Automatic annotation (TrEMBL):
<dbReference type="GO" id="GO:0034040">
    <property type="term" value="F:ATPase-coupled lipid transmembrane transporter activity"/>
</dbReference>
<keyword id="KW-0472">Membrane</keyword>
<dbReference type="GO" id="GO:0005524">
    <property type="term" value="F:ATP binding"/>
</dbReference>
<feature type="region of interest" description="Disordered">
    <location>
        <begin position="1"/>
        <end position="24"/>
    </location>
</feature>
<dbReference type="InterPro" id="IPR003593">
    <property type="entry name" value="AAA+_ATPase"/>
</dbReference>
<feature type="transmembrane region" description="Helical">
    <location>
        <begin position="42"/>
        <end position="69"/>
    </location>
</feature>
<dbReference type="InterPro" id="IPR039421">
    <property type="entry name" value="Type_1_exporter"/>
</dbReference>
<dbReference type="GO" id="GO:0016887">
    <property type="term" value="F:ATP hydrolysis activity"/>
</dbReference>
<feature type="domain" description="ABC transporter">
    <location>
        <begin position="371"/>
        <end position="614"/>
    </location>
</feature>
<dbReference type="InterPro" id="IPR027417">
    <property type="entry name" value="P-loop_NTPase"/>
</dbReference>
<protein>
    <submittedName>
        <fullName>Putative ABC transporter ATP-binding protein</fullName>
    </submittedName>
</protein>
<keyword id="KW-0547">Nucleotide-binding</keyword>
<keyword id="KW-1133">Transmembrane helix</keyword>
<dbReference type="InterPro" id="IPR003439">
    <property type="entry name" value="ABC_transporter-like_ATP-bd"/>
</dbReference>
<keyword id="KW-0067">ATP-binding</keyword>
<keyword id="KW-0812">Transmembrane</keyword>
<feature type="transmembrane region" description="Helical">
    <location>
        <begin position="81"/>
        <end position="103"/>
    </location>
</feature>
Length: 625
């Protein structure tokens, strides 16, 4: 038996790094864990370079101090021992400086390469996470849509994750330099670094919290920002250009985009009064801390208690401790760019939330007797009422069944249950008496050829658009041609500039677009291609709405004739089409209220008969679309 979905909270927490209270893991911490996953050699190289760069900062301070202490010896002449000491100190200083110059481009190149790897790794995580779930319940969850938006950094004011990788070594070097500066100050007085460390740490923590709050507010405003991103995409999409201009939507789009965007990002500027007070307090603390160190240093230097070399080193060290505090654009960049990583890891763990768990039984050759919905109930997550409540339906193998009903009756949901995009919340669906959940879900879907009402128009070559019906099958040009002919698509293919290899989008060179009717015929050809390669259940969910009544009826009649022997499910709001099926069922209130052949249902004079009469009258009067 198939394993039923259970509670997976613990594993979800471990994989995503979210705490039990729902707090997201530290973005920087998540990024650090992702680096070796993207490329261990580059991560090791970047770490070594960052540590080298960090060591150069104190080395530069010390070499400057040593040179400053030996400079008076230059008066004795370069040929003297004192002069040689000056030259040696100067050579060391130059060597350290040149090493820093060489380390910088090496770090930049390595960080750039690692950043590209991390970008690709993050993209793979998001793609695999969104594609691997067998069901689509999680992807239909608005909260998951928000995480997907954040994971892609779209419309949120975030930066590309590669920028975070570039900022990391600079941050490490700066922090190490600050820590070394504090250590050097111990040579002046043991207490000297303490006030500076305290002041810079407090100011840095306050500012870091402010930045985290801003990033968190942006993340919490994803719904508004996602809406703004959608409006922007509509404005820039060539497909919407005609309606935007005909209906004069330009001002409306700009206004709504501005409102949505400001609603999303406007929260970031909130509560600035408290932040301003903290900034003032931090400034006072820093002034006091510097005074506590610099005043004694000035006094002791003036009295000759601290020499020139040591004074030079200590002054540099005082300035260097600033690296222990807020690092401005560096930390801001790191916070905004690394914020992409936690939601990417959450999306990567989506398969663990999947409620559709594959069984293990083979599905080849099914169905042999038929498919049955037994007391099937289904409610969408968060839905107020069930779509189905005790649905009973029998689909005999090799027969054709038409499903009709009012809008919202659940006709498309029935297709989703049949394809195991969702599982019933009650009852079950069986194939030849076996619970659909016990079948291998991938193997079962190989038995299906589905054309959804909102089928996808892939902006790819025509060959791929049809070939996706059996993507694992080897290239078969003869089958493509047969399916195009049966679907009435061959005239459109013949008119393409590069035939089957023409991209079906005007956004590509030599690409073109198809009419609505041609796209529908292409979707039908895709389903036929699946049938050519072994699919035994054909589902047509109103894919021909762009065709006129006569063309649709003729196409379906030919389809039913060509696919005779297949188990066919036909969904359409046009009764001239559904009457061609062997059996018709009328769905209402979550149940099948009428079923039978067309003539039988007309004779019953029930819901189907009345709906058929109304539509026939509309067609006769010429009021249909």
């Amino acid at each position: 038996m198939a394993r039923r979905p259970g509670t997976r909270g613990t594993r979800w927490t471990r994989r995503t790094g979210r705490t039990g209270q729902g707090r997201a893991a530290s973005p920087v911490g998540a990024l650090l864990r992702l680096l070796p996953r993207a490329s261990l050699p580059l991560t090791a190289a970047l770490t070594a370079l960052a540590l080298l760069d960090a060591a150069l900062a104190p080395a530069l301070m010390l070499s400057v101090g040593v040179l400053a202490g030996r400079l008076p010896g230059i008066g004795a002449g370069l040929g003297t021992a004192a002069g040689h000491g000056v030259l040696t100190a100067f050579a060391v200083l130059c060597g350290v400086y040149v090493a820093g110059l060489l380390a910088e481009p090496a770090i930049e190149v390595t960080a750039g390469r690692l950043g590209r790897r991390v970008t690709a790794c993050t993209a793979r995580l998001v793609m695999r996470g969104s594609l691997r779930p067998a069901g689509i319940a999680a992807l239909e969850d608005p909260s998951v849509a928000d995480r997907l938006t954040l994971a892609q950094g779209q419309g949120t004011g975030m930066l590309p994750v590669a920028r975070a990788v570039t900022a990391l070594p600079a941050l490490v070097s700066a922090r190490a330099a600050g820590a070394t500066s504090a250590v050097l100050l111990i040579g002046f007085h043991w207490w000297a670094p303490l006030p500076l460390i305290a002041a810079w740490t407090v100011s840095g923590i306050w500012r870091d919290r402010e930045v985290r709050r801003a990033v968190d507010v942006q993340a919490g405003s994803t719904t508004e920002l996602r809406r703004a991103e959608y409006l922007r995409a509509v404005a820039l999409d060539g497909g919407a250009a005609k309606e935007i201009r005909v209906f004069g939507l330009s001002p409306w789009l700009v206004d709504r985009f501005t409102r949505a965007w400001l609603a999303g990002v406007g929260r970031v500027g909130g509560n600035r009064r408290g932040a301003a007070v903290r900034d003032v307090v931090a400034g006072v603390l820093l002034v006091a801390a510097h005074a506590a160190v610099l005043v004694p240093l000035a006094v002791e230097s003036g009295h000759g208690e601290v020499g020139v070399a040591r004074t030079t080193v200590y002054l540099q060290a005082v300035v260097g401790t600033a690296a222990l505090g807020w690092l401005g654009d560096l930390q801001w960049t790191l916070a905004r760019a690394s914020a992409v990583v936690p939601p990417a890891l959450e999306v990567a763990a989506l398969p663990e939330r999947d409620t559709v768990v594959s069984g293990a039984l083979p599905a080849a050759g099914l169905p042999a007797s038929g498919i049955r919905f037994e007391k099937t109930a289904f409610r969408y997550p968060g839905g107020r009422r069930p779509v189905f409540d005790g649905l009973d339906l029998w689909l005999p193998a090799g027969g054709s069944l038409a499903v009709v009903g009012a809008n919202g009756a659940g006709k498309t949901t029935l297709v989703k249950l049949l394809a195991r995009l969702h599982d019933p919340t009650g009852g079950r669906v069986t194939v030849d008496g076996t619970d659909l959940r016990d079948l291998d879900v991938s193997a079962w879907r190989h038995q299906l050829a589905v054309v959804f009402q909102d089928f996808v128009r892939y902006e790819l070559p025509a060959r791929d658009n049809v070939g996706f019906g059996a993507v694992r099958a080897p290239r078969d040009d003869e089958a493509l041609a047969r399916c195009a002919h049966l679907a009435g698509l061959d005239p459109a293919v013949a008119a393409l500039a590069h035939g089957w290899d023409t991209p079906l989008s005007r956004r590509f060179t030599d690409g073109t677009d198809l009419s609505g009717g041609q796209w529908q015929r292409l979707a039908l050809a895709r389903a036929l291609y699946a049938v050519e390669h072994g699919a035994r259940v054909l589902v047509l969910d109103e894919p021909t709405a762009h065709l006129d009544v006569r063309a649709e009826a003729e196409l379906y009649e030919r389809f039913l004739d060509l696919t005779r022997g297949l188990t066919t499910v036909l969904i359409s709001h046009r009764f001239a089409t559904v009457r061609l099926a062997d059996r018709i069922c009328y769905v209402e209130g979550g149940r099948v209220v009428e079923q039978g052949a067309h003539d039988e249902l007309i004779a019953q004079d029930g819901r189907y008969a009345r709906a058929f009469a109304l539509q026939s009258a509309a067609y006769a009067g010429g009021t249909h679309a």
